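[Automated response] Your request has been received and processed.

Submitted sequence:
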Amino acid sequence: DRLYSGSDDKTIRVWDLTQSPSCRCTGWTTTNKCSPWWWQETACTRARKPTLTQSPPVSLHRLNDHGNAVVALAVAEDRLYSGSEDDTIRVWDLKQSPPVSLD
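Generated structure:
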C-alpha cells in the first residue's frame, strides 16, 4: 500500500495509498464519491457546476541520499532499489520506517 516516486530534486518520496484523500463537492450534492487516486476524476452527482476540492495522497517519507535526479526505482521483497543520474544505485531497507539506505 505504498507508492515510491523519484524526482529531479534528488529525493525519493514514499506515499501512503491507504489513507483516503479528502474531497468536497459544493453545489446541489446528494452523493459525494471520492476516487482513491487524487489525479482521477471525482464524481459529484446532482451538482450544478460543482466545485471539487481534493487533496493528494499522504507523503510519509522523503529519502535524501542521491547527489542528482532519481530516474529509476524498483521494488523487490523488502528492498527498494533507486538509480540516479549521479551514477549510483542505492538499496533501501523497506522494513525500516523511514526506509534506510543499506549502502
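Summary generated for your ticket: The chain has a mean pLDDT of 75. The CA atoms of residues 78 and 94 lie 5 Å apart.
If you did not submit this request, please reply to this message.
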